[in-house]
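Budget justification aside, the reviewers requested a transparent look at the raw inputs and outputs of the sequence design task funded under Objective 1. We therefore reproduce one unedited record. The lines immediately below are the structure tokens for a 197-residue chain.
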């Protein structure tokens, strides 16, 4: 067992090139992928599309690996970055300041519980957890639909073992499904909220 606890408690700091810009992230042990941007988040960022003035939501933002690069690419838009882990929220807020992106609203929320009911997003993104109950995914997808504009898009990256699950459920909930990229470990998919006739 390591004895240098003070060293372990210091922030982990690393840089990453994402969406043609260099970012610096501070993280800590216990957060998801604390020493580098995980491959799933990188894949997701390659395929997300949004207008420069879009209203975007990053669900399960962690320390900001996805939301902060999106914020930097939204010159006239805003991103809401949510996580149920208060430590993740603190680090996402810190990283937004360090990377000088001011168009982020970072806050604690259990899925959509703290999102104002009247807010309708143009885009929702998430690196969905690999291990969660079916009920968790149901709540997430159904509430995501309620919070999307008609014609709005949801982008997900998941482990490839869940690709068929999300294919079926995105079709059921949003009325559409498109696989954007499948790698050995991760799959990126999207759906457009279809108008209910």
């Amino acid at each position: 067992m390591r004895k240098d606890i003070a060293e372990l408690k210091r922030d982990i700091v690393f840089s990453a090139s994402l969406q043609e810009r260099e970012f610096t992230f501070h993280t800590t042990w216990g957060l998801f992928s604390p020493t580098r941007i995980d491959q799933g988040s990188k894949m997701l960022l390659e395929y997300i599309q949004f207008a420069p003035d879009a209203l975007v939501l990053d669900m399960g933002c962690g320390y900001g690996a996805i939301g902060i690069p999106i914020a930097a690419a939204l010159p006239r838009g805003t991103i809401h970055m949510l996580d149920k882990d208060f430590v993740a929220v603190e680090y996402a807020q810190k990283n937004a300041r360090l990377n000088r992106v001011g168009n982020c609203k970072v806050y604690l929320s259990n899925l959509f519980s703290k999102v104002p009911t009247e807010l309708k997003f143009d885009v929702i993104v998430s690196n969905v957890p690999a291990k969660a109950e079916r009920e968790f995914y149901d709540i997430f997808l159904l509430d995501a639909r309620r919070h999307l504009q008609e014609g709005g898009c949801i982008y997900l990256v998941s482990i490839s073992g869940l690709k068929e699950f999300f294919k079926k459920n995105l079709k059921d909930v949003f009325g559409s499904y498109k696989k954007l990229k499948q790698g050995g470990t991760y799959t990126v998919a999207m759906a457009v909220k279809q108008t209910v006739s």
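The CA atoms of residues 56 and 79 lie 5 Å apart. The helical segments are 5-9, 39-47, 67-72, 86-98, 134-146, 163-174. Computational costs for records of this kind are itemized in the attached budget.
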